[in-house]
Amino acid sequence: MSEKIISKFFDIEDSHTIEIYEKHGGYETIRKVLKQWTPEQIIEEVSNANLRGLGGAGFPAGRKWSFIPKDSPKPKYLVINADESEPGTFKDRYVIDHYTHGLFEGIMIASYAIGAHKAFIYIRGEYIRQTERLVEQIEAAYEKGYLGKGIFGSKFDLDLIVHRGAGAYICGEETALLESLEGKKGWPRMKPPFPAIEGAFHSPTIVNNVETLAYVPTIIKNGADSFANLGSERNGGLRLYSISGHVKNPGVYELPMGIPLREIIYEHAGGLENGNGIKAVIPGGSSSPILTPNEIDVNMDFDSLAAIGSMLGSAGIIVMDDSTCMVRALYVVTRFYHHESCGQCTPCREGTGWAEKVLKRILDGAGRPEDVDNLVEIADNIIGNTICPLGDAAALPIQSYVKKFREEFEYHVREGKCDVKGQ
Ligand SMILES: Cc1cc2nc3c(=O)[nH]c(=O)nc-3n(C[C@H](O)[C@H](O)[C@H](O)COP(=O)(O)O)c2cc1C
Ligand code: SF4
Questions:
Q1: From the CA of 351, how far away is ligand 1's center (Å)?
Q2: Does residue 264 form part of some domain?
Q3: Which listed ligand is nearest to 91 at the C-alpha?
Q4: Binding site membership of 87 for ligand 1 (Cβ less than 6 Å)
Q5: What total of structural domains would you count in the chain?
Q6: Which of 157, 280, 321, 403 is 20 to 30 Å from 24 at the Cα level?
Q7: C-alpha span between 233 and 419 (Å, rounded)
């Protein structure tokens, strides 16, 4: 499949500038939209394109936009989630670096569709160079009249503001992000109300991922069907897969929704280093349940991965070869979630801490016979009992690693050491 939408800009020099973007047809779509399209038509087109939210949850983008109450007297906001903190995920950085104005055009179209005159890009604090790029290119867009009052000579006003996070993973969760945007501690809110009804500053708000919005101009330009047909059923288009771990060519690959995982690993990422075999694969960021080599023929879309008990999530693929100790891998993941738990809910705050301690004890050769079952029980008690999905994100890997590699965990406990070569 040679078709590319976003990544064709990765190799173009200065693709982040207005001049180069316009040379490749950039900003033609928003000009047409502001003259010829109604907001309702845009929402319908994006819905028909089967564009799913690409930040992790996969919620259909057009449907989410349709939840904004039209009769509300309050201002509406669009918030762009550029927090990108899910381990294994590094695609939004490429969009910001190379498709800067494509992202802005998507933001403009989405803002027009939901009636927002202010949009905020919430970017992770560590993305310093990307923040500078955004600020510099937003200024360039204001200078040309592409942002601000009456954009492109229309009656539509739009301000775009960059807000930096301070390095907390939880601020990628949409309601924690909104709290942080409002200047408060990044603690997730209870839902409902969902942000579309009461989001930023108590007003209707749409939160969308960077990559989701970056596909919007192409959908409107080429039509819903042409985008939908690139992907699989109910999962339209292409998406950016980040792949890392023990592969020869780690990186970001733009490929169809629904492409088999095996093809991404062996044909695009060049297979494994040193001819090693696969031991396990994380398909969609560290919170997605792990897959064994027998499961890598799965199609990479939200529905196919859900059907085998995992998640497409942020499409951050991590490949582990047969020199990987699964106890250590789970320990690293669990330590991360414990560190990043915001501490509001007891099952998440305490459960992640206990799981980390039990795993450390097993790794140190001091595991107790009941420890493997203890881990599963801790995870079972977290799932479904927390305010936000971080609890589940921590518990799902515990359940799946233990279920699929139980013998390895038991060996560690029984023998007090690891039997994997190279450890
Ligand atoms: C703990 C946690 C971390 C998250 N981190 C991110 C993130 O870094 N970037 C992102 O776009 N979505 C993240 N999400 C998902 C957001 O809550 C939200 O679903 C998403 O931004 C909506 O945009 P989309 O519909 O375009 O995917 C996270 C969710 C959770 C529970
Ligand atoms: S699940 Fe964890 S991160 Fe989410 S609100 Fe509860 S304590 Fe905080």
A1: 22
A2: yes
A3: 1
A4: no
A5: 3
A6: 157
A7: 43
Sheet holding 205-209, edge to edge: 159-164, 116-123, 76-82, 205-209
Same domain, 18 and 69: yes
**Residue whose CA lies nearest to ligand 1 atom number 12:** 55
Could you tell me the pTM of the whole model?
0.97
Residue-by-residue pLDDT tens, the chain, 423 positions: 468 999 999 999 999 999 999 999 999 999 999 999 999 999 999 999 999 999 999 999 999 999 999 999 999 999 999 999 999 999 999 999 999 999 999 999 999 999 999 999 999 999 999 999 999 999 999 999 999 999 999 999 999 999 999 999 999 999 999 999 999 999 999 999 999 999 999 999 999 999 999 999 999 999 999 999 999 999 999 999 999 999 999 999 999 999 999 999 999 999 998 889 999 999 999 999 999 999 999 999 999 999 999 999 999 999 999 999 999 999 999 999 999 999 999 999 999 999 999 999 999 999 999 999 999 999 999 999 999 999 999 999 999 999 999 999 999 999 999 988 756
- Quote the tokens at residue 36: 């010829």
Owning domain of residue 128? 7-228
Residue 86 Cβ inside 6 Å of ligand 1? The answer reads yes
Distance between CA 363 and CA 286 in Å, rounded?
Answer: 20
Question: What CATH number has the domain bearing residue 356?
Answer: 1.20.1440.230
Q: Distance between CA 234 and CA 223 in Å, rounded?
A: 16
> Which of 174, 197, 228 lies at the terminal end of a domain, its last residue?
228
Q: Is the same domain home to 262 and 289?
A: yes
**Are residues 51 and 103 located together in one domain of the fold?**
yes
CA dist 56 and 97 (Å) reads: 21
